[in-house]
Specification:
The complex is a heterodimer of chains A (about 110) and B (about 120). Chain A is mainly beta. In chain A, strands 2, 5, 6, 10, 11 and 12 form a six-stranded mixed β-sheet that branches. In chain A, a hairpin with a 2-residue loop joins β7 and β8. Chain A is globular and about 40 Å long. With about 120 residues, chain B is mainly beta. Chain B has no helices and 13 strands. In chain B, the strands form three sheets. In chain B, strands 2, 4, 5, 6, 9, 12 and 13 form a seven-stranded mixed β-sheet that branches. A four-stranded antiparallel β-sheet of chain B has the order 1-3-8-7, with no helix packed on it. In chain B, a hairpin with a 5-residue loop joins β4 and β5. Chain B starts with a strand and ends with a strand. The chains are: A mainly beta (about 110), B mainly beta (about 120). Chains A and B meet through β5, β6, β10 and β11 of A and β4, β5, β9, β11 and β12 of B.
Amino acid sequence: AQTVTQSQPEMSVQEAETVTLSCTYDTSENNYYLFWYKQPPSRQMILVIRQEAYKQQNATENRFSVNFQKAAKSFSLKISDSQLGDTAMYFCAFNNNAGNMLTFGGGTRLMVKP
Amino acid sequence: DTAVSQTPKYLVTQMGNDKSIKCEQNLGHDTMYWYKQDSKKFLKIMFSYNNKELIINETVPNRFSPKSPDKAHLNLHINSLELGDSAVYFCASSQVLGGVRETQYFGPGTRLLVL
């Protein structure tokens, strides 16, 4: 079974600065997918970024980028130029090739301070 | 346009009651899911349906019964509600493309409180 670990329960960052959220996972599979989801106070789960394990290039979506280290089974999220609207819970998630379900980490609560 | 919708958004009920949560997706996806988020924000899969057929049933009490009348709907019925059922329940959907089950998109969640 896969496991996903987020070692930072809470983090804070000043507005306009950069912050990195950590995620590690454990799997014996070679092909899989990794995701970061954002959950603001509204409770909605919003996809932030997605990475296919077979792609060596790190995914980027505007201010959000990942550092995917397959050998180390690490998948960190970097948020550049943090904005107040980035305040939310962030969940790292793993999906195997069959894609039958997402396995989530415990989440990191991020607070962006003005 | 709402992609994945759930009703109701809030549900307060007494222990022992039976309740249902409805989910609909208008994305044309072939797979739908139910997840439970507990009070510590931990998210865990409950069920997964592909083309109306159950493909995942994690260790969920049989008081929980999913029903998929068609590919666009996956409802969750809960019998004999218990205090520990209080949580946020999320519906999600995804599509198989080229043999790969793509990104899951979530509904807004239903907050269930059992008194």
